[in-house]
Specification:
This protein is α/β, with parallel strands linked by helices. It has four helices and nine strands. The chain has a six-stranded mixed β-sheet with strand order 4-3-2-5-6-7, sandwiched between helices. It has a three-stranded antiparallel β-sheet with strand order 1-9-8. Helix 3 links the parallel strand 5 and strand 6. Bound molecules: inosinic acid. Inosinic acid binds next to strand 5 and helix 3.
């Protein structure tokens, strides 16, 4: 094998983004925390004897958690946890940085999930209004179990009382972008979780 193909333990590159005033969590920190969380999930679900025909259903909440779900699914694979994927879409933000408080379900699961082990996979919980809505909606489908895993928990923003079963990283109050999370549908592709510069949500995009 040539040197070029050998993985190295070199420090990750510093990535700068024009629209961000601060990198809050790097992709490398996310991977480390997600790997740890996957280990915990694997240990907790051993009691259910998960198999291909009795897998853990990861319910990816679109659009924000598509990258997190992809990484979590592969870390769970490393731990020998069989998963199946379903996609749901709920919206409460529109193109603002504050929740509208009203949740709309835009896409439901495709397969029946009755008697299945379900895990809602969310990118971020702030007021918790969205997650509370999704939990109630899915509980009504009578799953065998229902848990939540959330990449970023902003406990200071809670408007309803809700405990996340697997919070991966806790962050302070800030509007973040990257690693799947957007502002007005932009910036999902950033590798890291970053704080959006104020002028980017206070001015129309055409003025930037
Ligand atoms: P909540 O209902 O206030 O908990 O908000 C949940 C949803 O709002 C998340 O699934 C995200 O889509 C979005 N959201 C909350 N905070 C942020 C943020 O800081 N950046 C981007 N999206 C966010």
């Amino acid at each position: 094998m040539s040197d070029a193909a050998t993985p190295t333990a070199a420090a990750p590159p510093v990535r700068n983004y024009a629209m961000s005033c601060k990198t809050l969590v790097t992709q490398e920190q996310i991977w480390a925390a997600t790997a740890k969380c996957a280990k915990q999930i694997a240990a907790d679900y051993r009691q259910y004897n998960l198999t291909e025909s009795n897998p853990l259903y990861l319910l990816c909440v679109l659009k924000g958690s598509f990258i997190f779900t992809a990484d979590l699914a592969r870390f769970l694979c490393d731990e020998g946890v069989p998963v199946k994927l379903e996609f749901i879409c709920a919206s409460s933000y529109g193109s603002d940085v504050k929740t509208s408080g009203e949740v709309r379900l835009l896409l439901d699961v495709r397969d029946p999930v009755e008697d299945r082990h379900l895990m809602i996979v969310e990118d971020i919980v702030d007021s918790a209004i969205t997650l509370q809505y999704l939990k109630r909606f899915l509980q009504a489908k009578k799953p065998a179990s229902l848990k939540t895993v959330v990449l970023l928990d902003k406990p200071s923003g809670r408007k309803v009382s809700l405990e996340v079963d697997y919070p991966v990283i806790t962050i302070p109050h800030a509007f973040v972008i990257g690693y799947g999370m957007d502002f007005a549908e932009s910036y999902r592709e950033l590798r890291d979780v970053c704080v959006l510069k104020k002028e980017y949500y206070e001015k129309p995009a055409s003025k930037l």
